[in-house]
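Journal club prep — side note

Before the paper discussion, L.F. wants everyone to see what a predicted structure for a comparable chain looks like in token form. Sequence:
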Amino acid sequence: MSLRQKLTKPLIVEPTDDHTHTVIFLHRFPAETTEEELHDKVLARKLTKNHKTLHEQFPGVRWVFPHPKAHARHWSNLSADDKAELNLDMSGVPYITQIILQESKRVGGLDKIVLGGQGETAEAAHESLSSFPEPSRAQRDDPDAMAGFIKEYFHPSWTDMSQMKLAGFVGMHAQGGNVTRDAKNFGIVSKLSGVNTVNSTIVTNTPHKFIQGGYKVQTVTWDGRRIDDFAGFLVEIGIYRIQERINNNGGGNGTDRLTPKDRSSSQQSSSKADAKEQLSEVQKHALLIMKEKKATEQTRNLILQRIEADKVERKIRQERQRQARLAREAKFRGETQPTANYGISSPTDYKSLSSPEAEEWPANEEDANVSEATTMDKE
């Protein structure tokens, strides 16, 4: 990762047309990469299957690539010099979150921002989604004050917290492996109930795209399936993409679709069938093994995701049981019932739910009852 002792302003690739959206993508190129080299390597310069860069195809997008700090928490704790260099004036708000707020004011609202990263930078980017400023209790109780808070920080025309979201979040990861922290945290927040916070609302309302793999097939004219998946997601969330055309020397109206790599489905099917017939028995066997391995990996990933989801659901259920028990005890003692708050106001809150160091919860309802009975005995 490009860890820097002294931070400089993010690398910016400006739009070629009217500015409509901003993509903030946390890069991880080595610190020795020069500014010129970095400019040619960042996501905006990656090629899709039609041999065009993302920057060329999305003329209204401003691309922002922040640098990580050489620190235990690369994207959070910064020195006074770093803050002055980057014009960060919000105390207690992490670096990337402040960049998001700065760019949202420039483009006209939080819903015009796409946030993302690759590997560990995707996890860091997702943590910044739960680090936005929260209103005070007085502001929450006053609709006018709450509307003013939302307009000041997030969008000039929003008045209600339910409107709050980013245009999208993208996490790119290698194929296979454990469920990543950004995907896990999104799953946790989307299942929690209780008092909504600014941060939990933003995470829940923001469209998410997790891209697994797509790194291997790269050529001089294409940077792999993950780039096409990313471009497709931008189109899905409403960002304008140019349909490239080339001159037609054979007459007609002078324009044709530029599709040197994208053949029609019938041509693709016939060419693949012909190529398969030319394979030797050994090659066919290797191809079969590869397909079986891919299917096994996909099944494994689905199982892991289901396990994580089950853990989350079990923890939520047990927390509700605990709250119910506390309510019964409070009623018995004539005390006020504690308020359950499942909302999340910082990355630490929900990150701890899935941390290996987090408290172990009972595996099932019977264990929960045993644990509950033990607690009552102690009391």
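L.F.'s comment for the group: The chain has a mean pLDDT of 75. Keep this in mind when we get to the figures.
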